[in-house]
Amino acid sequence: MTKISEDDFYIGIIGMGDMGKMYARNFSKAGWKCVVCDREENYNTLLEEFKDTSVEVVKNGHLVSRKADFIIYSVEAAFIDKVVAEYGSSTKVGATVSGQTSVKAPERAAFEKHLPKDVHVVSVHSLHGPTVSPEGQPLVLIQHNSPDWVMRKTEQVFDCFRSRYVYLTYEEHDIVTANTQAVTHAAFLSMGTAWNMSQSYPWELDRYVNGIEVVKCNIALRIYANKWHVYAGLAILNPSAHAQVRQFATSATDLFKLMVVGDYESLKQRALEARRAVFGYKDGVEPGANGEKCERTPILLSDTLLDRFSLHQPSSQHCSARNSHLTILTMVDCWHKLGIHPFDHLDVAGTPLFRMWIGVAEYLFRSPERLNLALESAAYDTSHRADDTEFVVATRGWSEVIEHGSFTHYKEKFESTAKFLEPRFEEANRMNKEMLKVIMESGAPKSMKTPPKKLSSLPLVK
């Protein structure tokens, strides 16, 4: 296929939120002609923001659709049907239409219902936030009702991102994003809510400033520093996500009940079953230690590597290493109960946050000594019991909000905690960028033509 000439080819973006703006700036920098729009009340503001660039700002999606050869709907999943219904009929004959939503089921339905039959569809999804460089990050491409040459054209359009392409179907995308993001977000949303309810900043306590606790605090702050709808749509509109968030709350509750009665043996048995199933580790053996075979390089080689990213310096050099790590035990137990193999999904389309979270879980579960210390702390040490109680209550609260599909309650719950954590967002954002760089140096696949294994499927929850 002949390479597209930037001289007579327009890329259109409908929806100029943070991701839409990131897309426009990257395309413009690469020399593509861009025509963009947002809600009409934002027209003047958007015009001022892009006045010194080659990006053409217009008043509505009809003007974008009539002019652009490649159109990207970058809107919230909850509104995709309404927006495509309004502007889809104006799509230029022969144009390629794409969507950049985090949940593809409603996007697919909107495209099939409202787009003219004489256009092509190739959906996309950059699996990272707007503040992360797209270079090396997974970019999902979904070929739908379009010939191969349209897919090749789409690849040319996105070459300037230097992302690694991941080729999935709509269904596979929603399963992968549920497996890599839904429960990950639920874990950190629950942590933040627990801190809000107890009205305490955990990093100001000596027991939360070292090693993997640093990662947990920084990721939670990173999530709450974003906009609520980024996570709400993925959790509420993705049918695969409901079963996962429900299981996460169930796992947290089941493990906590064993903690309360001090049932160390049952906790250990359940943790070891999950350790074998999720990571493939032999009981009592640490991969890579004492000549033991190690299948892959650990994401986190040392927790001390992360100490410098703490938001607070400990008041003592002898901070207690004891922690139940209920959040991590819950995460791995949840993966086990759902039959999810996180490394398979990491290799396919893992987000930066997912890579960090797997790294934390892997670090705790690799070492029999570290895991056993956490289990002993869970069963016998009550110093974290109040925090763990708040966490379990928070997991059930988030599960109920998502199960009921309430965007209003999701927003209220999210923004209440975000307001509480806001004073530390700026510092956490700086720390996160440095921490992310360290963790991403562990490497990721350069390209991915197809998933390495059959994706774990979950029952769709209506």
TrEMBL record:
It catalyses: prephenate + NADP(+) = 3-(4-hydroxyphenyl)pyruvate + CO2 + NADPH. The keyword Amino-acid biosynthesis applies. PROSITE patterns: PDH_ADH. Residues 9-289 form the Prephenate/arogenate dehydrogenase domain. InterPro entries: 6-PGluconate_DH-like_C_sf, 6PGDH_NADP-bd, NAD(P)-bd_dom_sf, Preph/Arog_dehydrog, Prephen_DH, Prephenate_DH_fun. One of its GO terms (biological process) is tyrosine biosynthetic process. One of its GO terms (molecular function) is NAD+ binding. Pathway: Amino-acid biosynthesis; L-tyrosine biosynthesis; (4-hydroxyphenyl)pyruvate from prephenate (NADP(+) route): step 1/1. It holds the Pfam family NAD_binding_2. Residues 442-462 are annotated as: Disordered. Keywords: Amino-acid biosynthesis, Aromatic amino acid biosynthesis, NADP, Oxidoreductase, Tyrosine biosynthesis. Its EC number is 1.3.1.13. It is an enzyme of class 1 (oxidoreductase). The keyword Ubl conjugation does not apply. Belongs to the prephenate/arogenate dehydrogenase family. This is Prephenate dehydrogenase [NADP(+)].
